[in-house]
Amino acid sequence: MNKEKDLIGQIIHDTDGREYHVTAVLSKGGQGIVYRTAEEFLIKINTSLDKDKYRERYKWLQKRGSQLPKETRIAFPIAVLEEPWVGYVMMEAKGHVSLNDYVEKPEEIDDLWDWYFNATGGLSKRLQIGYLLAKSLRYLHINGYAYVDLSPNNVFVSKEKNSLAIIDSDNITSGAYRPLIDGTNYYMAPEIANKTAVASTVTDTYSYAVLLFKMLTTCHPFIGDEAEDANPEIVQESVDKGKLDYIGDPVSSSNKNSNFENTKIFLTDELAELFRRTFVEGKKESSRRPTLMEFMKACMHARNRVIQCDHNGCDAEYYYTGYKCICPLCDSHIKKVYLLQSRNMVKTRGKILIPVDGSQDMKPLDVYADDIGFMAVTKQLKYINRSFFDENIPLESDVSFLAVGRTKEGKLAAYNLSKNVITINNSKMSKARPVDPYKKGVTKPVVVDDDPGAHFLFLEKNIDVTTECEFIDTKQIEKFYGSAEISKFITIKQEG
Question: Do the beta carbons of residue 95 and residue 89 sit within 8 Å?
Fold first, then answer.
């Protein structure tokens, strides 16, 4: 009988005496097997040779996991198994599937586009996952830990919700507590494979970049066409040790991937530049790599630019690059798109003082306006967060307070998701009216394109969901010119 299945039906206890009825095998890895239990928990049984090291590590992880914020979204041990077993108990992320479903196209599926757009949520879903994963890792990093073993096998996502969970915390390190493995082949940083550095937050970010690149483009950043006929072991070593050129390197033609020529449309210029910095300049010089925060912002900016084809029978997603941009599936132009631009404006009774380039010199202006976010809307609902007006918003405060989407009649509707008062004005700044919080089946969404021309969604000055720009010294302004007014608003333009 299969040894893994021998445990099914057995009862296993943790060190506190709680019992777990094993019902099924969930997954198998190099360090152990994960089982489901009737109590709706998961248990991991370590199968490595050096079990004593892991028993002590699991106790350490259980203690550390209880001290970290839930935003890390990592399934730390909540209990350690009783001897003779070496393993631990963890929560199960119900309704979640392996990230492999979004990274590796099944061989039995021939149509790449159908799998990408219809079976796995398309471009928006992948950018959402990229943002959430970077956010989770960043919370882990700022608390002094590195994950070490990032790969699609260890990430689970919800198909329906904006949710993500990271499993297999076995190799998390604090620096002093060294990991027991180097990482996963094809995802580890070159300095790890070359034994010139130890796992850190920097090597985590490299692994994240590889995973994000592959999820967006379906290609590994260092595996070109010639790898199909090469020795797999040699390919793996060459990738891990950084011996190959990046397939998107603009100045190299030695390692190209023909499939990437089709899927590179899923990278914005901002994302493409971050990947270039990671896989060209930063391949061997880790100090030149971008940060997780840069990737987070790039994923959010990209998601705001995603539009959904509005032609019958086609729901493909692609980036808005101008009104004449073409759908990659049906080769059609969009019929109608709304462009939203967020702006910050500061006014006083007279002129105001704005620091120039962070210096002490002050430049007088009548009105200061700053363009921040950009969003294109065709069909799907999009959420406007605080960071749409100020990218310096802390992660834990970056809540959605407004949503916009197109009605069946093709008009743009605004949904106030917060208790804060949001006011809509027409282009002449008259006829102001509040947007009440939207409740499905109770209130109707406000249509903001009743009249032709540009409109403005004004947020009341100094409301809770907005913040003052860091580079505006309001106390200095009020000292010389009296009270200052800081407004946040969205300009809306319709094309088509």
Answer: no
Closest CA to 187 of 276, 103, 313: 103
The C-alpha atoms of residue 282 and residue 175 are separated, in whole angstroms, by 22
Q: How many CA atoms lie within 13 A of 90 on its CB side?
A: 28
DSSP 8-state assignment for residue 460: P
| Helices (H), ranges, 286-346 | 292-305
Longest dimension (CA), the chain: 85
The pLDDT-based confidence of 99 (bands split at 50, 70, 90) is very high
pLDDT on residue 451: 60
Contact 370, 344 (CB under 8 A): yes
Of the chain, the percentage scoring pLDDT greater than 90 comes to 46
Contact at 8 Å (CB) between 41 and 34? Answer: no
- Please name each of the domains of the chain with its CATH number: 3-92 (3.30.200.20), 97-303 (1.10.510.10), 336-495 (no CATH)
Residue 438 DSSP one-character state: P
| Rounded Cα gap, residues 38 and 8, in angstroms | 11
Q: How many residues does the chain have?
A: 496
Q: What does the pLDDT look like over 14-39, one tens digit per residue?
A: 999 999 999 998 877 777 888 999 99
β-pair partners for 353 = 364
Question: What is d(CA 262, CA 251) in angstroms, rounded to the nearest whole number?
Answer: 19
Exposed/middle/buried for residue 8 (C-beta within 10 Å: 0-12, 13-18, 19+): middle
The alpha carbon dihedral of 101, 104, 106, 111 has a sign of positive
Is residue 134 within 8 A of residue 296, CB to CB? The reply is: yes
User: What 8-state DSSP symbol labels residue 333?
Assistant: B
Q: CA-to-CA distance for 382 and 162, rounded, in angstroms?
A: 13
In one-letter notation, the amino acid at residue 325 is C
Q: What gap in Å lies between CA 182 and CA 175, rounded to an integer? A: 13
Q: Pick from 180, 179, 140, 136: which is nearest to 156 by CA? A: 136
Q: State the DSSP code for 14.
A: B
C-alpha–C-alpha distance, residues 174 and 69, integer Å? 16
> Is residue 92 within 8 Å of residue 40, measured between CB atoms?
yes
Tokens of 44: 């991991």
